[in-house]
Specification:
It contains two helices and six strands; from the N terminus they run H-E-E-H-E-E-E-E. By secondary structure, the chain is an alpha+beta fold. The protein has a single domain, classed as Roll (Thiol Ester Dehydrase, Chain A), CATH 3.10.129.10. Strands 1-2-4-5-6-3 form a six-stranded antiparallel sheet.
């Protein structure tokens, strides 16, 4: 079992969220709250606060990219076999609607085979409180043997 997944299960969502931000401090700029993590799935909530708003008063595009990389990365780590490592290689994003509320980032890797090294595409959708999809990303994860 991945150390990240083990930590989530051992410490719970709140403490795990703090730990992730300690390991990768930039994630703390969005103050994420994990909801779920398992192989092939990761979900976190981000509150809409002034610090992550743009000039329109909506959640900034880069804050959503940050949330996407967070859930995409934790999903990837939780899905890898022992002896592998990963790094994001590319991210293609679509801004679909203004995020005027708190957001929920959901990464899913249905059909992605993490058992072999190579580029893996992880899909991330971000929803507002009404359930409207406001953002989509496809993140290419470079998976290699450690």
């Amino acid at each position: 079992m991945s150390q990240v997944l083990s930590a989530f299960e051992q410490f719970g969502p709140e403490k795990f969220s703090e730990m992730v931000c300690g390991m990768a401090p930039y994630f703390s700029t969005i103050n994420p709250e994990f909801i779920a993590l398992r192989a092939g799935y990761s979900e976190a909530r981000v509150k809409k606060v002034r610090a992550i708003e743009n000039h329109l008063g909506t959640v900034h595009a880069i804050a959503m990219c940050n949330a996407a990389e967070l859930v995409g990365g934790t999903l990837t780590d939780a899905s890898l076999p022992e002896g592998c490592r990963w790094i994001p290689k590319a991210m293609n994003v679509q801004y679909l609607a203004k995020a005027k509320t708190d957001i929920r980032a959901v990464a899913s890797a249905d059909g992605v085979d993490f058992s072999e090294p190579g580029d893996k595409s992880v899909a991330v959708d971000i929803f507002d409180e009404a359930g409207t999809k406001v953002f989509h990303a496809d993140i290419i994860m470079d998976v290699r043997k450690a």
